[in-house]
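User: Hi! I'm working on a homework problem where we have to compare a predicted structure to a textbook description. Could you give me the structure for the chain below?
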Amino acid sequence: MTLKRNAFYAQSGGVTSVINASACGVIETAAKSKKINKVLCGQNGILGALNENLIDTSKESKSTIAKLKNTPGGAFGSCRFKLQDPINQKKEYDRLFEVFAAHDIGYFFYNGGGDSQDTTYKISEMAKKLKFPIQCIGIPKTVDNDLPFTDCSPGFGSVAKYVATSTLEAGLDVKSMAETSTKVFILEVMGRHAGWIAASSCLAATKAGDPPHIILLPEVPFEKSKFISQVKQTVKKNGYCVIIASEGTQTKSGKFLADSGLTDAFGHKQLGGVAPVLASMISKMGLKNHWAVADYLQRSARHISSKTDLDQAYAVGAHAVKLAIAGKTAIMPIIKRLSDSPYKWKIETASLKNVANVEKTMPKKFISANGFEITAAGKKYLRPLIQGEASTKYKNGIPEVAELKKVLVQKKVS
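Assistant: Happy to help. Predicted structure tokens:
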């Protein structure tokens, strides 16, 4: 075992416009360390370790690594693969530690949401049982903003900025056409069990009557009659209505309005589109409407990312390395809010045992009494997270992104 050991970094789950900033934070900080030799990135998340497809980041130029901060998506490939209990998946765990040993990996960094933190925790526990010397650090990321303990999840602030901006712009479009054309516009955004993304649309409004007029959250049971009544009242009062709906909008019984009947690799229900379901209801009211699904656009819009979000994404990646080389394991760096205005924050830590598989939903104090709006307290929380414009370099009129060589290290395990 050499003095300087290698680090493994991988990205997991749905990607964001700033997850590569966390990767940049890991790689650049590791390069300055006297304890880390190389950062080997898993190609397509944890599958990169299981398949021994490890990308040697030392083969990339410093300028290319720096460009990761300008690049959306997952630069090294992500995956939706859930490690089960070590007893039921012993073969996979044996394989992981075989690869770690073969490539002298002493540091494990997994960048993702709740399921990813669960994976990191399980690996740390297995390492403890095997007495394998490896520091396991989870790096927070999720557009859903549903990780516990941290003030916000890196990736969320940029989605919030995109959704608030889209609400403002689309709202002006609908308002201008409402007299003789479209009366209702519905924008469907991500958010399975937590309505943080939909809630962020409230930041588009600067005065009473501004869009969004109705926000549908998973935390508030959907009542069809109440919804239809609210739409009618809004159109009568303003002449038009802009609705922002979480994909996880559900009834009192817990049934998703957009339940497709399918599940993903993590066992989550795949949602088939709440916007057209709502549009069908509104069409029966005789109101002309349009709907859109933000889908991948909301989480990949690096050109309109929040600088606050970008800075935090880089910071948690850099801090993860510092924690690992200090001998820490089974923890995740979190963002601690110090003040709202001016917004100040610092990095602290949380135990992965307490983070894994816990979802942080919208507190009741952030939701209005009628369930369709966000309170002043909610806006006070949300507003600082979209502040600042993350600079973007353009080439030939489009953003310039990192183009990695992705050189794989030679395989050592059969």
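For your comparison, note the following. The CA atoms of residues 39 and 286 lie 59 Å apart. The domain at 156-302 is CATH 3.40.50.460 (Rossmann fold). Good luck with the assignment!
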